[in-house]
UniProtKB/TrEMBL annotation:
Its cofactor is Mg(2+). PANTHER family: ATP-DEPENDENT DNA HELICASE, PTHR10492. This is ATP-dependent DNA helicase. It comes from Lithospermum erythrorhizon (Purple gromwell). Belongs to the helicase family. GO terms for biological process: DNA recombination; DNA repair; telomere maintenance.
């Protein structure tokens, strides 16, 4: 019971505080509900921007010979694999070669033409600093690497830093330049947290 001027002010402060908390909860609930109901639209907009950037990177890379690196970050279930499949289909529909690799075999088997990074780039199983890929420059795989337009690497955060550096050196050696990944476009994906 509020009695006296001081008590009324105290009661009003508590009521105001409760009102602010209730409104915050209501707004946050509405925001989360909107995100849940429109998740596909929001994700599509986000990934459409990335798709446009990669496709323009492919176009510009074909003209200028410069590559680039993209990082797709997100936990499981956010549509990264769907994005990779769309990228693969689009790049291949243009008549260009797109290579998809993954750090684990189970993940690699989920993509058309997917292989593990160790298999595709001939990376030794035991990885130490300064490791080199065992691919011959005259092999048919090396010719494929020279002709490819884009590399999509899923579950990249699972790979050791030495492995990614070895692939970078291999691509530079095959393409005959010192650009990042030999001037090829690369999309790294996974959960970077």
């Amino acid at each position: 019971m509020c009695v006296g001027d001081r008590s009324y002010l105290l009661c009003f402060r508590r009521l105001l505080q409760q009102y602010v908390v209730d409104m915050y909860i209501k707004l946050e609930t509405m925001r989360l509900d909107y995100l849940r109901r429109h998740q596909d639209d929001l994700r599509t907009e986000c990934y459409q921007g990335l798709l446009d950037s990669v496709v323009s990177g492919v176009r510009e890379g074909a003209v200028s010979g410069g590559g680039g690196a993209f990082f797709v970050d997100g936990p499981g279930g956010t549509g990264k694999s769907f994005l990779y499949r769309v990228l693969l289909a689009h790049i291949r529909s243009l008549g260009k070669i797109a290579i998809v690799v993954a750090t684990s075999g189970i993940t690699a088997s989920a993509f058309p033409g997917g292989r593990t990074a160790h298999s595709r780039f001939k990376i030794p199983i035991t990885v130490v600093k300064g490791v080199r890929c065992q691919m011959s420059v005259q092999s048919s795989e090396a010719h494929l690497m020279k002709c490819e337009t884009i590399i999509i690497w899923d579950e990249a955060p699972m790979a050791d830093k030495c492995i990614i550096e070895a692939v970078d050196k291999l691509m530079q050696e095959l393409c005959g330049n010192r650009m990042l990944f030999g001037g090829k476009l690369i999309v790294f994906g996974g959960d970077f947290r």
